Every structure is written in C-alpha cells, then in structure tokens.
Amino acid sequence: MITVVDYKLNNLRSIENTLRRLGHSVQVTSDPKVVERAEKLILPGVGAFRDAMRNLSDLGLIAPFTARVKSGVPTLGICLGMHLVFSESEEFGIHRGLDLIPGRVRRIPEGVIVPHMGWNELRLRKQNRFTEGIEPGSFVYFVHSYYVDPA
C-alpha cells in the first residue's frame, strides 16, 4: 500500500489516479496514525515551503513522517515534497525543513528566467533504483523557481 500524505497543499488526485492505473493500492491521508504505519510514502506538493511546513506541523504529520523515513520506508518527494525533506529553504525567508537530507533549497540565480519552465537534460551522477532505466541525456519537463543544493 502506498500512502500519499495530504498536508493540504498537494495535487493529490493526479498522483492517486496514476498510481491506481499502474496497479498500486493507494491511500491518501492527513491522519498521523496512518502515516505511522505506512509501508511506502509519497510527499507531493504545490505551493510555498513555509506554508507546507506549517501545515505538516499543524496536522501533526512531521514526527510520524520523519520516523517512517528514518526507519527505511521507501519515500518519494514530488516537487515541493522533495524540497521539504531538505534542511531548509530560502523561499520567502529562511525556513526549516524536515532535515532528512542535509542541504538547502535555493532560488534559481539571476540570469535564468524564473519561473523556469521547459525541457531539461538530466545529468545523472550515479544510477540507483529510482533512476533505473533512465538513459543519460534524457529530457524531463520542469516548472520551478527553486532548486535543491545538497550539503
């Protein structure tokens, strides 16, 4: 069962529908007790980092989510959800993240049109299960104004 965490800043239905079409069992939840028992986690997101962290806190989701990730539960952060797993973000000031991956979310530097929208070539530094089957030089579509800078 894949648990999609609903912290009220997410695009949930497209993720849920895609996973179901791929044959997966899915539950969408804001319930910390359900997150505590999750077998697999997805943290999606659309919106501002600060607001997302506030919602995760207000809903009591931070402790169960981070505990499950630290226990080794397979986890995928999508868009803002990926940003949230880092230590902090400089979006609209400096804000603490979940600190599961050391690093900072930074604004794309001047000289690049923001928000950045378009096809970009992936430069994979190393293969892992997530990137398995993705050929070097593959193109993916991005819409964003921030990037992650791992420590």
Report on the structure:
With 151 residues, the protein is an alpha/beta fold. Helices cover 26% and strands 30% of the residues. It has 5 helices and 10 strands; from the N terminus they run βαβαβααβαββββββ. It has a 4-stranded parallel sheet with strand order 2-1-3-4, with helices on both faces. It has a 4-stranded mixed sheet with strand order 6-5-7-10. Strand 1 (2-5), helix 1 and strand 2 (26-29) form a beta-alpha-beta unit. It is globular and about 45 Å long. The model has no long low-confidence stretch (mean pLDDT 91).
Brief descriptors of the model:
single chain; alpha/beta; four-stranded mixed beta sheet; 5 helices; 26% helix
Please write out the topology.
Blueprint: E1 2-5, H1 12-21, E2 26-29, H2 32-36, E3 40-43, H3 49-58, H4 62-70, E4 75-77, H5 80-84, E5 86-89, E6 95-96, E7 101-107, E8 116-121, E9 139-144, E10 146-150
Parallel strand pairs: 1-2, 1-3, 3-4, 5-7
Antiparallel strand pairs: 5-6, 7-10, 8-9
> What class do helices, strands and sheet pairing give?
alpha/beta
Main sheet specs: 4 strands, parallel
Approximate shape: globular
Radius of gyration: 16 Å
How many helices in DSSP terms?
Answer: 5
Oligomer category: single chain
Question: From N to C, what is the helix and strand string?
Answer: EHEHEHHEHEEEEEE
Number of strands: 10
- The amount of beta strand, in percent, is 25-35%
What level of helicity do the residues show? 25-40%
Q: N- to C-terminal separation? A: 32 Å
Low-pLDDT sequence parts: none
Instruction: Give the neighbour order of strands across the main sheet.
Output: 2-1-3-4
Nearest-integer average pLDDT: 91
